[in-house]
Backbone:
């Protein structure tokens, strides 16, 4: 039996020897029996041929063969001992498997039975890997095969594309396959990488797509003849932009209007619209521009009357074909048709030379316009200075001078006089501005020729206590403007408008802007910004929000009106925006007239919308802004002024107070027009009461007594009586409709003064208003809106009014209530043409409170031809918001709206109003008084005529229409009734009292008022003024030859007085001696012998020889035939 066993590789050689020995024994031996050893022995080892170089990470199976003495060989790879001289470079297993680890050289050795063999191997490793360059002009949809290359430590290299790991950071946009195929899917960027062990290479790749092309520097409007370099920009998907102006392809939809060169140079050739297009790599950009040119010129003022030697600077406004305007005065050529009457220089300054008429023409190229200038023979009689009685040291105030002429007319002569102060250390004057320097008393002089106006002022040392900027919250649409006001409150409780003196700043100047000295803030871009005003270290701020609202419509007032020839009328424009907000845009629209020769309308600064009626006829007045336009008709008529009413008619003022007056002119067509600006205002005693600022007359009480105030125009005069008392202010009380007001709204507060004579006066416009916390409430001290509270944020604070050392205050609470609804009401649903209705708007709030918002809402009407309605205004003296006037027969819907504090537009209910036309209904009543002054003898009388005008020219007032006359004489009122005949009702009025008799005529709810002055001396309505240019020898009491005496005598009433003689005399104390040629027969001087109602008569006397005397007289011998009254008026010249 055999034993089975295994032989492992390690014992193969031993087995071989055992077999050899066994075979030798079996073959026999020598005779002696000795054995012979023939076993082969290991002679050497032989290694398989190794690679000279291995790459890190590679393996190689080495083998070793044993060579024996019998020439046999045997594989000893598994029996040999293997070793590496540096196992950090190469390792070798027991079976001879060699692994390359790191770069370097080392020796591998195999050993067996005392024999060994070895070889050396150089190991190399990858030192870097690199990806092929990715093209930079790839486009969406492209593919590209990338490769990877490896560089080894021996500087050799090879393609290892299949050995690396390919990756993309953004496979959505740019993907990469496992073999390196890159594909562009969309525009975008990615990082492409390859990785091998710890080696990495990557490239950023971006595929940019041209998204759009744009054109910059192309204006929406460009003047014909202008050249503009345009710029084309390419906008890419990576938000970059490049200028491609030269590379773009330019074109114009109408090269005859706008020509564009290959380089983007734009030339405006003719008026019109054209679209400019820039094309580049399949993308296009287009923009339309309007080429405009000057279409007309207008001169402001449209009509002008100057006295000899006076001057006025004209303004030339250009109106362009794109409905924009510009002041072109500096570019205008000016010319007078008769330089002997008036000259005009290159700046538009007209100087009156002699009496007569001339045309002044303004020209730019072929465009021209003219105005008719009348130079009157009137001479300057006096100068009045409009300046506050008190100025604050350190502040500047604008000067104003008004000249009164021998014909009773007035002119603004601010720029014509020479200004001086009596002490330049106290106050200095520069460029028609006076700067108060330090406290004291100073006299301001305005001098023109031999005439001087004086004004004594006190300079107060008071300091600024605070500044108030109103409104505190402003919202305006982008591209529009809003007016702001800054008031300084002083330590003496006085106040002054300092808007023109503050330093303006905005925390976001890219959103809003305001120029130095301006009161208009402009909305530049959408957003919110704080507007700050600073003066002498004091600050005030408002928050201005600029919205993206766009103009949706324009409304103008008045609608379908009439105007007597020779008068002016102001139009206003309001814009309604897409968010429901309403803004006054009178100064922003372009005003045009369909025929400027009939009615010219101004676009000049400070007179925008002012129409002058030049000739009889009809014109359309249009207002245009942002391609939105609205028109209304204006009839220039030959209506005749029949009466003037001065309001208030009977005034009692405490000394030192002021009150605003207006003159209402009644015309033969039934219209009543405010003629305050056109009328000549006079006072019978400027010592008692003076009239300042003729364009907005203010009556000032100067001393105890009585004075008649008259307004005269076209020979018609109206009068009022001012009684100045010695009463002093005792207390102030405040009143308002609401003391709890939601944030973001307004409330009018009034101040009443109780005087020591128990009278009560409205002093709202005289007090200084203050809020204890302007963060909650501000209060206006503006001329137009005194006492107007503007609420800012919830909370409570006190509002005070101070005047003449007294003050009063009241607590007001600002709530966070939100406007929820508006209800409007009307006293009637049907009215006649020319009737008026006062609508009201009551708001309900989220806290169940309510408030009258009639003065704040925007009124909406469906038919502007049927009715017109006054819109919101903050003018304290003339806010008539909600006053509706019926214009023509028809039906119109009326509603109101207002934005609440949440930005929600709240709309009211809708009222439907029916307008019917009764041609015979009473449209207006005109009161005429013949005369308006009577003697208080109970016999002398005035015929009071009430003329009723029918609704239309085809109508007639029915005979026997009742007219009620309410007459107040010496505090007692009685009623008289009369009935019309041919539209006129008359009563006869006499009196035994002295004073003003107030009269109101009423019929069918139409009213008209006027007044008659009852006096015991006609001299009370005759005013005289004296002027003299003399050489006087005081020592010898001689008035020298060449001296001139001048007097002006003005009849304040509408009663005519006979004027047979004018005498020039001397004597002390009474006139005794006639000067040479005196008395003078007035029929030889004036052609008639009457001092007519409203007339101003001037008489001058020049001495041809020396005359002894110290007192001289120019005396007017006047008489009234009706009352057989003779009286003398005139001037006294004393040289004592």
Residues:
């Amino acid at each position: 039996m055999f034993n089975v066993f295994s032989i492992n590789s390690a014992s193969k050689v031993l087995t071989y020897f055992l077999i050899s020995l066994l075979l030798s024994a079996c073959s026999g031996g020598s005779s002696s029996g000795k054995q012979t050893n023939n076993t082969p022995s290991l002679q050497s080892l032989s290694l398989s041929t190794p690679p000279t170089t291995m790459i890190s990470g590679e393996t190689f199976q080495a083998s070793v063969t044993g060579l024996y003495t019998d020439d046999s060989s045997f594989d000893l790879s598994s029996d040999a001992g293997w070793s590496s001289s540096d196992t950090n470079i190469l390792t070798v297993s027991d079976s001879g498997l060699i692994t390359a680890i790191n770069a370097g050289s080392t020796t591998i050795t195999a050993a067996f039975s005392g024999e060994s063999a070895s070889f050396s191997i150089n190991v190399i490793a990858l030192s870097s890997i690199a990806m092929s360059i990715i093209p930079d002009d790839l486009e969406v949809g492209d593919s590209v095969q990338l490769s990877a290359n490896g560089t080894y430590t021996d500087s050799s290299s090879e393609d290892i594309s299949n050995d690396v790991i390919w990756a993309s950071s953004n496979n959505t946009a740019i993907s990469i396959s496992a073999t390196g195929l890159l594909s562009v899917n969309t525009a975008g960027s990615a990082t492409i990488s390859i990785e091998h062990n710890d080696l990495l290479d990557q490239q950023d790749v971006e595929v940019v797509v041209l998204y759009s092309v744009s054109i910059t520097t192309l204006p929406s409007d460009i003047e014909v003849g202008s050249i503009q370099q345009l710029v084309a920009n390419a906008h890419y998907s990576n938000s970059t932009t490049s200028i491609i102006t030269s590379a773009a392809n330019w074109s114009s939809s109408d090269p005859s209007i706008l020509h564009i060169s290959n380089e983007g140079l734009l030339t405006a050739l003719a008026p019109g619209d054209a679209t400019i297009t820039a094309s580049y790599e399949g993308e296009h950009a287009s923009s339309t521009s309007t080429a405009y040119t000057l279409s007309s010129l207008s001169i402001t003022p449209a009509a002008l009357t100057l006295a000899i030697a006076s001057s006025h600077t004209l303004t030339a406004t250009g109106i362009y074909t794109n409905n924009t305007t510009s002041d072109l005065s500096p570019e205008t050529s000016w010319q007078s048709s008769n330089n002997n009457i008036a000259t005009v220089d290159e700046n538009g300054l007209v100087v009156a030379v002699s009496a007569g008429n001339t045309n002044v023409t303004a020209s730019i190229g072929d465009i021209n316009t003219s105005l008719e200038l009348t130079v009157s023979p009137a001479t300057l009689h006096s100068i009045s200075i409009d300046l506050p009685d008190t100025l604050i040291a350190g502040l500047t105030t604008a000067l104003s001078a008004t000249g009164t002429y021998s014909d009773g007319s007035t002119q603004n002569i601010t720029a014509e006089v020479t200004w001086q102060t009596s002490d330049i250390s106290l106050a200095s004057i520069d460029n028609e501005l006076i700067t108060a320097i330090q406290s004291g008393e100073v006299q301001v002089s305005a001098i023109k020729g031999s005439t001087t106006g004086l004004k004594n002022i006190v300079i107060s040392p008071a300091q600024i206590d605070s500044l108030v900027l109103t409104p505190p919250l402003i919202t305006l649409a982008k591209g529009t403007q809003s007016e702001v006001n800054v008031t300084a409150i002083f330590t003496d409780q006085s106040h002054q408008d300092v808007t023109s003196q503050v330093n303006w700043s905005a925390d976001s100047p890219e959103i809003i802007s305001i120029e130095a000295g301006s009161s208009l803030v402009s909305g530049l871009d959408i957003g919110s910004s704080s507007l700050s005003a600073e003066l002498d270290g004091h600050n005030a701020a408002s928050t201005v929000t600029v919205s993206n609202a766009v103009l949706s419509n324009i409304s103008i007032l008045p609608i379908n009106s009439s105007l007597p020839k020779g008068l002016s009328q102001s139009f206003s424009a309001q814009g309604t925006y897409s968010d429901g907000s309403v803004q006054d845009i009178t100064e922003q629209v372009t005003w045009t007239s369909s025929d400027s020769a009939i009615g010219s309308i101004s676009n000049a600064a400070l007179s925008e919308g002012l129409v002058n009626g030049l000739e009889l006829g009809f014109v359309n007045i249009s207002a245009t802004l942002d391609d939105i336009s609205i028109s209304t008709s204006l009839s220039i008529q030959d209506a005749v002024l029949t009466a003037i009413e001065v309001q208030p008619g009977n005034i009692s003022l405490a000394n030192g107070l002021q009150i605003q007056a207006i003159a209402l002119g009644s015309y033969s067509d039934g219209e009543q027009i405010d003629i305050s600006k056109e009328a000549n205002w006079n006072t019978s005693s400027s010592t008692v009461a003076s009239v300042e600022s003729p364009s907005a007359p203010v009556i000032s009480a100067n001393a105890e007594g009585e004075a008649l105030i008259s307004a005269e125009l076209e020979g018609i005069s109206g009068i009022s009586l001012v009684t100045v008392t010695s009463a002093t202010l005792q207390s102030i009380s405040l009143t308002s409709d609401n003391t709890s007001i939601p944030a973001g709204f307004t409330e009018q507060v009034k101040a009443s003064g109780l005087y020591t004579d128990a009278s009560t006066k409205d002093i709202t416009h005289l007090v200084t208003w203050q809020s204890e916390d302007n963060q909650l409430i501000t209060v206006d001290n503006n001329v137009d809106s005194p006492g107007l509270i503007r609420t800012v944020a919830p909370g409570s604070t006190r509002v005070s009014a101070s005047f003449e050392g007294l003050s009063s205050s009241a607590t007001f609470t600002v709530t966070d209530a939100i406007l929820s609804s508006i209800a409007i009401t009307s006293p009637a649903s049907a009215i006649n043409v020319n009737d008026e209705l006062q609508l009201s708007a009551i708001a309900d709030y989220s806290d169940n409170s309510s408030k009258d918002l009639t003065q704040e809402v925007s009124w909406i009407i469906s038919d502007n031809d049927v009715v017109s309605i006054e819109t919101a205004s903050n003018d304290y003296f003339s806010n008539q918001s909600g006053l509706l006037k019926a214009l023509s027969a028809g039906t119109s819907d009326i509603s109101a709206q207002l934005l609440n504090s949440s930005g929600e537009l709240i709309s009211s209910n809708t009222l439907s109003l029916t307008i019917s036309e009764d041609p015979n209904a009473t449209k207006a009543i005109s009161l005429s008084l013949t005369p308006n002054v009577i003697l208080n003898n109970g016999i002398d009388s005035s015929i009071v005529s009430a003329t009723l005008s029918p609704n239309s020219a085809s109508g007639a007032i029915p005979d026997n229409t009742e007219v009620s006359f309410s007459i107040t004489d010496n505090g007692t009122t009685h009623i008289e009734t009369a009935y019309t005949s041919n539209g006129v009702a008359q009563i006869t009025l006499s009196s035994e009292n002295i004073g003003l008799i107030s009269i109101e005529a009423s019929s069918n709810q139409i009213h008209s008022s006027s007044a008659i002055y009852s006096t015991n001396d006609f001299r009370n309505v005759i005013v005289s003024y004296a002027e003299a240019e003399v050489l006087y020898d005081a020592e010898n009491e001689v008035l020298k030859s060449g001296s001139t005496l001048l007097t002006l005598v003005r009849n304040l009433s509408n009663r005519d007085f006979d004027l047979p003689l004018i005498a020039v005399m001397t004597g002390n104390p009474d006139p005794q001696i006639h000067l040479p040629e005196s008395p003078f027969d007035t029929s030889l001087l004036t052609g008639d012998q009457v001092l007519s109602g409203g007339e101003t008569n001037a008489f001058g006397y020049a001495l041809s020889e020396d005359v002894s005397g110290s007192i001289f007289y120019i005396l007017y011998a006047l008489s009234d035939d009706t009352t057989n009254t003779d009286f003398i008026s005139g001037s006294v010249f004393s040289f004592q």
Remarks:
- Residues 551-637 form a domain with the Immunoglobulin-like fold (CATH 2.60.40.1080).
- The CA atoms of residues 287 and 1046 lie 70 Å apart.
- The mean pLDDT is 91.
